[in-house]
Amino acid sequence: MTASALRHAFLQLPAVEQASLLDDLILSSCDAAWEERIASEMEERVSAVERGEMTLHEAASVFHDMRSRPLS
Predict the structure, then answer these.
(1) pLDDT of residue 28
(2) pLDDT tens figures, 3-62
(3) CA distance 31 to 37
């Protein structure tokens, strides 16, 4: 199955099933090595937010922006 066909099939699922599938895919791709690789970046981002150097955005705004982008 091609990536395009998978994307099309995914978009046909109800939103709850899409979210569940994404959760499964993300969790299955994460392991201790992955967590170790990104730990310092995660800590730096939290620190930047706490210092006021990074702005957080409302989820609704982020999702709106994502949905407005064309699929490639």
Answers:
(1) 85
(2) 999 999 999 999 999 999 998 888 888 888 888 888 999 999 999 999 999 999 999 999
(3) 10
For the record, the structure tokens of 60 come out as 């609704």
Cα four-point dihedral sign 30, 8, 59, 57: positive
Angle between helices 3-12 and 15-29 (to 10 degrees): 130
Closest CA to 18 of 29, 5, 7: 7
How many CB atoms within 10 Å of residue 4? Answer: 9
Does pTM top 0.70 for this prediction?
no
DSSP state for residue 52 in the 8-state scheme: T
Q: Are the C-beta atoms of residues 62 and 69 closer than 8 Å to each other?
A: no
